[in-house]
Design goal:
There is one protein chain. The protein has 20 helices and two strands. By secondary structure, the protein is mainly α. It has one domain: MFS general substrate transporter like domains (Growth Hormone, Chain: A, Up-down Bundle). Strands 1-2 form a two-stranded antiparallel ribbon. Helix 12 packs across helix 17. The longest helix has 40 residues. It is globular. InterPro entries: Atg22-like (IPR024671), ATG22/LtaA_families (IPR050495), MFS_trans_sf (IPR036259).
Length: 522
């Protein structure tokens, strides 16, 4: 029995590449939290999208009134609302164009992740991935200051697509740091030493490691939402300063200013991480290969090994559908919300503020419950996924009635209030669970794949939803589709085993060392 235990422990440790000689410091950990608070997405993911939606709506027209383009959509809010699209006098629903913009953004992101992700685990250049995409996003987001009139809706769409691509890349690659950072926490180093000395079992070590990763991810997400709330407060002050509620022009300018404020806040809080991040280099690129070629070899090797990493790829496939459903639900609710509040930047900010507060409270509460009752990360994720499933089911009711189903202002306040224990915890535990299914030392590549399936390949939901909306003329008819996208992977995740994944990851690293990096036993 002792021999079997030793074998098991060795397997778990052998798949772990050498740790940094110095554990993660408190200063580094708090710098990580600070960057997360700064890169909270309110400008990149919320305000830039809302600005685009606002301007395209103002440029749209009622297609039932002739001549086409003569009556703005705001004259009769119950009538169809179309935008010129595709040339030759063609036009389509403006909500459909918004969904196309989201789909194009997600498609471009997948290309970035495929090219960069498999390389970032090698050498010492991985910190520059986050730095580069952060700086690019800052430049693009300040560009929104020049876009504040409806005739520039196409420029707003282009800038939104480009900035969302670079922002999500900075977010995903920064996210890939947390498993390594958690593994280098002092308590994990102590637990690892205890495991090697036979003082604790592999199961106890695995739980402590899992809790450490859950801790870093959830506390990061709490601070992300603290930053979210602070930016909302700063933005509200600026909006009152420019009298955003006094007219269309001021409202448009309010959106542009909001993006700039959130970007400036991010820059300030990113500096500590850029200064204090410890270098955790990966293995060198094998002799005879270069960074331009080895990334594709690594990716192809991983694809060929997919059948051996059954648990990991089952989760990636499940998350492909899950993230698509969750993301499209968010887009559909955001469109309905923006229509209901008449595109008011101030009203949208109030609702966003409640979302951030809800996420901050419920994510912290969820982690406290997990640690107190020693609940598996997978269980926490599945509870969150269930509540996420209820969101599009509620929207489905809106197909047949306007009394409920995201037609009324009170529903969006309710959506914002419950955001924390639905979408808030779903994100943090979705990332934390992925960390338990990744071969140690290959976090960038596998989190890049997660980035592809969670955003880069989430063009299916928006594009199909756009087709459904075009066919039916009712934007609520897309909710059954996204409910199915969430339900199927929710069921599939129940069949994923963390224990089987440990063995599969160990085998993957052994095959990689022998077949790809040509590392042989002495």
């Amino acid at each position: 029995m002792g021999g079997a235990e030793s074998q098991s422990n060795s397997t778990d440790i052998d798949q772990t590449p050498p740790r940094s000689s110095v554990p993660a410091t408190r200063r580094e950990l708090w710098a990580y939290y600070a960057y997360y608070a700064g890169n909270n997405g309110i400008g990149s993911f919320q305000y830039s999208n809302l600005l685009f939606q606002n301007l395209i709506y103002l440029a749209s027209f009622n297609p039932e009134v002739l001549p086409l383009g003569s009556e703005p959509c705001g004259v009769d809010p119950t009538a169809p609302c179309h935008i010129w699209w595709g040339g030759g006098g063609r036009h389509k629903a403006y909500t459909s164009v918004i969904l196309i913009g989201n789909g194009l953004s997600f498609l471009c992101q997948s290309l970035i992740f495929l090219i960069v992700g498999s390389l970032a685990d090698y050498g010492n250049w991985n910190p520059w991935v986050v730095r580069t995409f952060s700086v690019l996003t800052w430049a693009f987001e300040f560009g929104f200051l020049g876009i504040k009139t409806p005739d520039k809706w196409q420029a707003a769409m282009g800038l939104y697509i480009i900035s969302s691509v670079t922002w999500w890349a900075s977010y995903v690659f920064f996210n890939a740091v947390f498993p390594k950072l958690a593994d280098d926490l002092p308590e994990v180093h102590r637990a690892r030493q205890q495991l090697e000395n036979g003082e604790i079992t592999e199961e106890e070590y695995g739980f402590q490691n899992s809790i450490a990763r859950s801790k870093v991810m959830n506390i990061s997400w709490v601070w992300n939402n603290v930053g979210f709330i602070i930016v909302c407060a700063l933005t509200l002050g600026a909006l009152f300063g420019v009298h955003a509620n006094d007219g269309t022009a001021q409202n448009n300018w309010g959106y542009s200013i909001s993006v700039a404020i959130s970007t400036g806040f991010w820059i300030v809080l990113a500096i500590p991480w850029f200064l204090w991040e410890k270098r955790r280099p990966g293995p060198a690129v094998p002799a005879g290969d270069s960074y331009f070629t080895f990334g594709f070899k690594q990716l192809w090797f991983t694809v060929k090994q997919a059948w051996k990493l059954k648990q990991t790829f089952l989760y990636l496939i499940s998350f492909f559908l899950l993230a698509d459903g969750v993301g499209t639900t968010t887009s559909l609710v955001a469109i309905a919300q923006t229509q209901t509040v008449l595109f008011s930047v101030t009203e949208n900010t109030y609702l966003i503020l409640v979302q951030g507060g809800s996420a901050m409270i419920f994510v912290a509460l969820a982690f406290t419950i997990q640690r107190r009752f020693k609940i598996r990360t997978k269980t926490m994720l599945q509870v969150s996924n269930f509540f996420c499933l209820l969101l599009p089911l509620w929207g489905m009711i809106g197909i047949w009635t306007t009394k409920v189903g995201y037609h009324n202002l009170w529903e969006f306040w309710l959506f914002a209030g419950i955001y924390g224990f639905t979408l808030g915890t779903q994100f943090s535990y979705g990332q934390a669970f992925m960390a338990e299914l990744v071969p140690r030392g290959r976090e960038y590549m596998f989190f890049s794949l997660l980035g592809i399936v969670s955003k880069g390949s989430s063009w299916i939901g928006p594009i199909v939803s756009s087709a459904i909306v075009d066919d039916t003329g009712n934007q609520w008819t897309a909710f059954p589709w996204v409910a199915a996208l969430i339900f199927v992977p929710w069921v599939a995740i129940f069949f994923i085993s963390e224990e089987k994944s440990k063995q599969e990851c160990a085998e993957y690293l052994a095959n990689e060392a022998k077949d790809l990096r040509k590392v042989h036993d002495a």
